[in-house]
User: Which sequence fits this backbone?
């Protein structure tokens, strides 16, 4: 399955906000637009998503690799002091977005299911924001260096060219 | 969310085998290893997965882009005659694998849920095979040109280099 895209999941609000890295994120419905994310019950984020029933899928670029690494390997809101990210208000939910990210997708939880050692949270997309020029004519601008996870310490990004069938 | 990795979903057996392209595929549990795939009820594959309760997540390379395009835009098993792929027996299930693919992940359906306009099928990984050298030391070999979907007619692949945090 790997390499898989890596995202940051923002949860919580006010003084208690956490950010974790997640590869296990996908779209599951077009209308309505639903996103599924698999989160281990061991993660601090798990509790915050359950408490507040919302989360942000934030889209980091390669430039944010160090922040992604901290988000993926450390636990709890205290990691935020080690990260170089700026929280900013989301448009439609109370969970904040990340200013430096390429995009932020705001979700309200509509379902959750236990599968194996993870909980699969289903969120309805209720708002979004993105950096200028990141998505033009309905396609991602590959100059923005979208990040993917290859294996534990190895990350990759995409070539800056499109292939057409 | 895009670019997202593109996979081929193989379903059916014997004389009735279908292959569709799918971007909405992710891992949802580590132990046991579970994969979730979102499939529209409009797709022929939907019926075959429901009938046989198994599917293969096949991993195409950039070289298979024309096949991926046919798999994604045409409906039903008749498309296989237009594709340049070779079906081969899977190791643990009756649904076949694709010889040209980088890897084939064999899944048995353990759950399905309706979410919006798609059905989310959850499969337990019961077998897999891959091309020699595609995954060494637990990491993907980026020379294999894993395929991702950027927008409708635009596909991308990864740079052949790793970045470390």
Assistant:
């Amino acid at each position: 399955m790997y390499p898989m895209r890596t995202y940051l999941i923002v949860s919580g609000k006010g003084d208690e906000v956490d950010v974790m890295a997640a590869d296990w994120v996908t779209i599951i419905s077009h209308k309505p637009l639903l996103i599924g994310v698999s989160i281990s019950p061991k993660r601090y984020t798990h509790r915050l998503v359950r408490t507040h029933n919302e989360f942000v899928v934030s889209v980091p670029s390669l430039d944010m690799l160090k922040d992604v690494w901290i988000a993926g390997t450390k636990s709890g809101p205290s990691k935020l002091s080690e990260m170089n990210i700026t929280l900013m208000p989301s448009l439609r939910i109370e969970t904040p977005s990340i200013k430096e990210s390429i995009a932020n997708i705001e979700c309200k939880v509509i379902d959750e299911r236990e599968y194996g050692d993870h909980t699969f949270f289903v969120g309805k997309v209720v708002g979004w924001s993105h950096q200028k020029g990141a998505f033009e004519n309905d396609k991602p601008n590959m100059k923005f260096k979208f990040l993917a996870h290859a294996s534990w310490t190895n990350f990759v990004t995409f070539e800056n060219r499109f292939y057409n069938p």
User: Anything to note?
Assistant: Residues 4-157 of chain B form a domain with the Pnp Oxidase; Chain A fold (CATH 2.30.110.10).
